[in-house]
Amino acid sequence: MTKPMLIGILLGSALALTPIKSNGALLISGNTIDLLGTTAIMQPELAGAVIHDEAIYDSVTPSGNDLFQVGVNIQNRVSRSDTDGNLIFAPRIISSLNNTSGNFLIDRAVISGFSDFELDVNYRTDGVGDKGPNSASRSFDGNQLSFDFLSPLVISNLFENPQQDSYFLSISSNATAFANTGSMSIFGRHLDYPDEVFEFNFAGIAVPTDMAIHVPEPALFTFLLTCFASLVVFKRR
Fold first, then answer.
1. How far apart are CA 188 and CA 70, in angstroms?
2. What is the C-alpha to C-alpha distance for residues 222 and 71, in angstroms, rounded to an integer?
3. How far apart, in whole angstroms, are the C-alpha atoms of residue 196 and residue 189?
4. Which residues contact 4 (CB under 8 A, 6 or more apart)?
5. Rg of the chain over all Cα atoms, to the nearest angstrom
6. What is the pLDDT of residue 95?
7. Ranges of H-type helices in the chain
8. pLDDT, tens digit (0-9, with 9 covering 90-100), for 175-204
């Protein structure tokens, strides 16, 4: 066997043993990434059972017009990966135009409460919804995620169906536990009120959390206590 052939075999073996995460988009603190969408076929680790699912509602009215109202529902969903048991956070924006003219535009969603957990971020095109965010960014402390919709989430009432809902976001974490202690803000505008920015605020959003503090097993605790006692005796001597 020639040397080039041996090198090729070794490189091929190394690549075969290297885990490949299709379409992954690891989002680190202080960084911004473009989002193209993903599916459970592209990323099998995203397949899993839904363990939490609820709707949270908020509405706003423009200043000086109490008859006008825009409402938004957040579908607050969490699933557990069948592959590694880690949690996937999948909120979804559901527009509720109520008695508006249909020209409301959702531009950005900001979710807080992710601490320093490792996050793989995208959105799911294999679920319900019409539009996904174009990009995602993470704050320098890692706690806050921002999703920007450069093409707005709700379109004009000139169309037959003016209402658009987002795809499920896909925030795959290395956490195995969650708590509804996060918050989410949505920022948008209305073509009839161009000088006003609308803001929706939601509490009770699911975010990753650490497991309960592990208590040492009795044998380990006894060992540590014995070491401490021996140290005291040695010091006295």
1. 10
2. 58
3. 7
4. none
5. 24
6. 77
7. 3-17, 218-236
8. 999 999 999 999 988 877 888 888 999 999
Length of the chain: 237
User: What is the per-residue pLDDT for 7?
Assistant: 47
Q: How confident is the model at residue 64 (pLDDT cuts 50, 70, 90)?
A: low
Which residue type does 158 have? L
- At 69 the pLDDT is 75
Q: How far apart are CA 176 and CA 210, in angstroms?
A: 8
In contact, 113 and 27? CB cutoff 8 Å? no
More confident site: 228 or 12: 228
| Residue 164 contacts residue 133 (beta carbons within 8 Å) | no
Which of 236, 91, 103, 65 lies closest to 167, judged by CA? 91
> In whole angstroms, what separates CA 195 from the centre of its chain?
30
52: enclosing H helix or E strand? strand 48-60
Q: Rounded to whole angstroms, how far apart are CA atoms 158 and 151?
A: 17
Main-chain phi, psi angles of 68, to 5 degrees: -105, 135
pLDDT at residue 18, rounded to an integer: 39
